[in-house]
Amino acid sequence: MTSVAILWCFHLTWYEESGHQHRQAIRHGRRFNPWYEVDLYNENQFIGLFRMGQLDFFRLIQALLHHIPNSFQNDIQGLTIEEKVGITLYRMGHGSSYETVGDVFNMGKATAYQASQEVVQAILVALHDSTIVFPVAEEIEKWDAIKETFRQRQGLTNIIGAIDGTHIPIIPPPNDQWNAYVNRKGWHSIVDGHGNFCNVYGGLPGSVHDSRVFRKSKIGRDLINGVARFPPECRLIGDSGYSSRLPILIPLRDTQNQEQAQFNNFHSSTR
Questions:
Q1: For 29-50, what is each residue's pLDDT tens digit?
Q2: Assign residue 18 a region: left if phi > 0, alpha if psi is -120 to 50, beta otherwise?
Q3: DSSP symbols for 196-228
């Protein structure tokens, strides 16, 4: 997967009411002075709006610079790259509808949607292969470093990734298959010992069981077919929804003594 400050034509005033912090947009008739030229926000306000600091925001801009059309001079929207990224980060960070984002940024929801789509596509093109990276089996030094981060948690050895699923809310499809998209978890991801994503797979209906989603993923298919995705002594760590026949360390289903119960505690703390 973030946030930044309002990009143009309005200032934000902050006030307290009933213990909650609210934003109030003071809009002007036209856009003026891009936000990055006006010292309107401190770092905390910036992070509160866009879920990232100003330095990280500009780093993201540089990474996406050649992948987002700059329509400031040749498009009816007149949006700069900075504005498009800010709109996208605000929506991601707050889970707002495009109508709400358009209202906050003083634009139509169609414009907010188009800007957000451009940025999301740019992120996929520019950052996916360099940011979410699963090491190859031969990169022994990387695997050793990952194993060490997991070992330092609770002493479990040869763990190179924690796997789990998450449920992503969606608008159900308008057909007879809508009930397949209820409950269960539909996205799978693997993170390293620092919580960094190194593999993500999604797209199946939310009713599909965790273990089946994993078997459908590229890494899952490779492991089933005997393709070495990591050193042979290494394992992923996951909950009891996964099969113990794969190189995934799962908790014991029935603990018979204190040692087994302690193992499950270590297992839970590690992942």
A1: 444 333 444 357 788 888 888 8
A2: left
A3: -EEEEEE-S-TTS-HHHHHHHSHHHHHHHTT--
